[in-house]
Design goal:
The chain is of the alpha+beta class. The protein is built from seven helices and 16 strands. The strands form five sheets. The chain has a four-stranded antiparallel sheet with strand order 6-9-16-10. Strand 1 and strand 2 form a beta hairpin. The protein has a domain of 239 residues: paralog of FGE (formylglycine-generating enzyme) (Alpha-Beta Complex), CATH 3.90.1580.10.
Amino acid sequence: MFHHRAAHVFVSAALALAAGCAADAPAPGPAAPDADVAPTTDLVVSEVADVADATDIAIDTPLPDVPAVVDTVDVLDAVDAASDAVPDVPPDPCAGKNCDDGNACTTDACDGAGVCQHTDQPDWTVCGGGLVCNGSGACVDVKSAKDMAFIAAGTFWMGCNATKDTVCQYDEKPQHMVTLSAYYMDLTETTVAQYKVCVDVGVCTVPSTPSPYATYPGFPNNPVNYVSWTQSQAYCKWRGLAFDLPTEAQWEMAARGSCEKNGSTAGDDGCAAAMRTYPWGETAPTASYTVFSVSVTAAVGAKTAGDSPYGLHDMVGNVWELNRDWYGTYSAGAVTDPVGSGSAPAWVIRGGSFGNNAADLRAGVRAANDPSDASYSIGLRCIRTYP
């Protein structure tokens, strides 16, 4: 189509040129005397013929190929083909899924299958309102049952048992019968990690750290030290209304055991004589039983051979433990749930520490501590009333 149209235009132009030439030729006159000269019209016709021949050559000569116009349909087909080549992305199974179970003691996440997973927060994670997680997904006011021992109501003989103990001190006498209501006691001395929770929520104050012996905050599993009596009781009270430091009588029965725990009947003389010297029995202290005669504290609960009859760890050694009572003299008669002296210049501490010798690790040993004193060798352990 393109070639023929061009040729047609070319021929038309040639014919017009020939006609113009014919019009411009002079009018014919008398015949020229030279018979050999051809008429002018013959020349014009010859030129027109030459132009026509040139036109035929132009028509027969192929023009250069012109690129074809890309069809819109072909472009769309190519786009579709490219789209088909992109691999399909599977939908996110967790898109729009809310896995929050509303429990502050679990971490919530959606797995690759689109199933919500709930993981219990670690023990002692703060879960609001002064409460902590118990490690089993519950927000409670007590660490958890596994971290406190139940001390059943019972009777024991408090003070030095001279039939077994040959180094009784004056303030450990007289040995006397005590009856106690049931209570719970922490299995271990309060650790740095446990105390720090109370600090982090703004209830407890940071222990003083005046020496390299301070355990806070760098030794989370060791007993917290350099805490005063006031700081210690504040920590116990923060755990709940039923919590406090132990009375001196509660501490000693937890360390020695009741008459029944010592194989005797409550109230008889046999019970008095049966009272053990150390929490584990009568064997002299060694490094297998407790932390003593060393220069630093140790992680709590590591010396299970030295546990008390109730399974309490480190009742002697590691750090002295503050009691609720003022330091004073014992009663000579039987008492029930005694609280101790009403007032005195110092609080009772019990149990000896990492720096003491074997004689100071007896269950009957007592010592006094100034209310404002916070020492590298003093820590705490809490009790909870029952129920």
